[in-house]
Amino acid sequence: MSLTRAIWNSIRPGNLLIIVFTMVAIWFVLSQLLGVTLDPKYAAWGMVSLILIAASGNMINDVVDQPCDEQSGKQRNPVGNTISKKNAIWIAITLGLFGLAITLIGILFLQSNVLILLLLAVTLALLWFYSYTLQKIHFLGNFTVAVLCTVPILICSLSYGINPLTFDSSPLIPEKLQLIDDILIFYMSFAFLLTLIREFVKDIEDLEGDASCGLRTLPVAIGLERSRMVLIIGILIAIAIETAALVLIRGSSQLISSSWPLILSNMILPLTIILVQSVHMKTSEQAGRISSLLKITMLFGLSTCLFFAFL
């Protein structure tokens, strides 16, 4: 494997493409609902910054996982093989600093929202802290990654000066602006729940290797059978929360009366299929297939936000 190919694999281009798709889709929806198109310069600097920071986090994760991957016989980690550990660390540092530098340039010259710089700085810090510390702690590592997967949507909303986390329900807000807040929270919760479940499934997939390396993930602590039950309960909770959230959005706005059944079925049907497969999950190989299905479901579910652009 060439050095360029090894670096490419280590930054996980598939995950980065999901970030790009999510941000483009959310920006498009916001531009249609608000009737204001975001300047491409603002979109470009925010997206590039986050991609570089995410790539930095992915590579440093490979650095930290390298001894365990080597011990468990996994060949997918290029660090320690094609890329030396020292060089991988420097590449990760460079990617992260470039990401923050581009963000700072956006603040200084494009007068962008300073909250985006703060958010990206916290994201970079958490990605590194996760790799070195949090991923070794029961559930906390999974929770951290799930929270970070909401960052692309939050950056898009902050680009338009909208902060959905304020939960402002003032009656002075026009119906469409309130709907935008609801949509953003809905898809942030979807990204959070799907990522949380997928990270847990990945821990099930890596159960034997993690146990041999002394990592105390939740599946290592409770075993495969109990992990399967936790997974089933988690999927049921995700289905219930997303169904209830979409019904509430429908009840608060007449603008989505024709679209919500299609959006709901496109999200819930794949999760139901995954639920059935989880009931019959017995091996780490089956967990790997479920993990892949969850990634596809995440992408498919996030794409349903495009329906709102044509309300």
Assign the CATH topology of the largest domain: Tetracycline Repressor, domain 2
Helix content: over 70%
| Count of helical stretches | 12
Q: Write out the CATH superfamily name of the largest domain.
A: UbiA prenyltransferase
Radius of gyration, in Å, reads 20 Å
**What is the architecture of the largest domain at the second tier of CATH?**
Orthogonal Bundle
Low-confidence stretches: none
Biggest beta-sheet profile: none
By CATH reckoning, the class of the largest domain would read Mainly Alpha
Oligomer: single chain
The ordered H/E elements are HHHHHHHHHHHH
* Beginning-to-end CA distance, first to last residue: 48 Å
How many domains? 2
- Strand portion: under 5%
